[in-house]
Amino acid sequence: MPVSPNLPGKVCLVVCCLLLIFSLPAQTLIGGSIYDDEIESMSYNHVWLQYANTFRFKEDMSIDSDFGHIFYTGNNAKRLNVRSTFKYNLTENLQIGAGMGFFWMYNTPNLSQELRFNQVISYFKDFERSTMHHDFQIEERLLQSQEELRDSKTRLRYRFGYTIPTGDNFYFGVFDEIFSHLNPDADEATIHMNRAGAYIGYNTHQFFRLEAHVMMQDEFLKNHGLSHRAWVFQVRVKQII
Question: Residue 139: which of 118, 170, 168, 111 has the closest Cα?
Answer without folding.
Answer: 118
